[in-house]
Amino acid sequence: YPLRSPSSTNIHPNARWQQNGITVAGGNRQGNGINQLSNPCGLYVDDDQTIYVADQSNHRIVEWKRGATSGQVV
Q1: pLDDT by residue (tens digit) across 21-67?
Q2: Distance between CA atoms of 66 and 24, rounded to whole angstroms?
Q3: Quick one: pLDDT at residue 28?
Q4: What confidence tier does 1 reach under pLDDT thresholds 50, 70, 90?
Q5: What structural domains does the chain harbor?
Q6: Is 57 helix (H, G, I), strand (E, B) or coil?
Q7: N-term to C-term CA, the chain
């Protein structure tokens, strides 16, 4: 199923993205630190470009605000 943004824009499952992105969550091995994820299973980006990650095995939602250097559990 396509993901939906708050403005109801469809993002196709096979969408292509620019290759000059940065890693804002994960990339630090699997774990439970604020800079680690364990079985992320959902992603949501709001109109302010805040990213929410459903971190399933850690039973938490991690929020990354645009330009932030670390996330926070919400």
Answers
A1: 777 666 778 889 888 889 988 889 888 989 999 999 999 999 989 88
A2: 9
A3: 79
A4: very low
A5: 3-73 (2.40.10)
A6: helix
A7: 26
- C-alpha span between 25 and 36 (Å, rounded): 7
Q: What is the DSSP string of 25-42?
A: S--S-SSSSTT--SSEEE
How many CB atoms sit inside 10 A of residue 55's CB?
22
Amino acid symbol at 18:
Q
The closest of 40, 38, 64 to 54, measured between CA atoms, is 40
Contact residues for 11 (Cβ-Cβ < 8 A; gap 6+): 2, 3, 4, 5
**6/23 Cα distance (integer angstroms):** 23
Provide the token pair at 1.
């199923």
